[in-house]
Design brief:
Length: about 100
C-alpha cells in the first residue's frame, strides 16, 4: 500500500469516527507534500478550486509551488524515509510534466 493510499484510508477512518464532523488528517511530511501537490494542481488548472468550484490556471503560482517542493527535496535529502523520498520524487516528476504540458 502506498503512502497516498494510507493517507486516504486514515482520513476516511477519522471521518467515520467523528460522526460526520470534518476532521483534518494527521500532519506528517507525506500529508504536507500531498497538500502542496493538490495546491499545484489547482494552480495548474487540473483540479477545481475548492473555494470556487471552478478551474482556473495560474502557471506562475503553479511553478512556485513546484519550486517549493523542489526546495523541500533539496533541503531534506538524506533525512526522509524511502517511502517519503519516493513520494516526493514522483510528485515532482508528475507536476513538472503537467506544468510543461500546460505551459505549451
Amino acid at each position: 500500500m502506498t503512502e497516498e493510499e494510507r493517507f486516504i484510508l486514515k482520513d476516511q477512518e477519522r471521518r467515520g469516527k467523528a460522526g460526520g464532523e470534518t476532521c483534518l488528517p494527521e500532519v506528517s511530511f507525506s500529508t504536507f507534500i500531498l497538500s502542496l501537490n493538490a495546491s499545484a494542481l489547482v494552480h495548474l488548472g487540473i483540479l477545481e478550486d475548492p473555494g470556487t468550484g471552478q478551474r482556473t490556471k495560474n502557471l506562475a503560482l503553479g511553478k512556485q509551488t513546484i519550486d517549493i517542493l523542489a526546495l523541500l527535496e533539496e533541503k531534506t535529502r538524506g533525512n526522509l524515509t524511502a517511502e517519503e523520498d519516493g513520494l516526493l520524487k514522483n510528485l515532482l516528476y508528475d507536476l513538472r510534466l503537467v506544468y510543461v504540458r500546460e505551459k505549451c
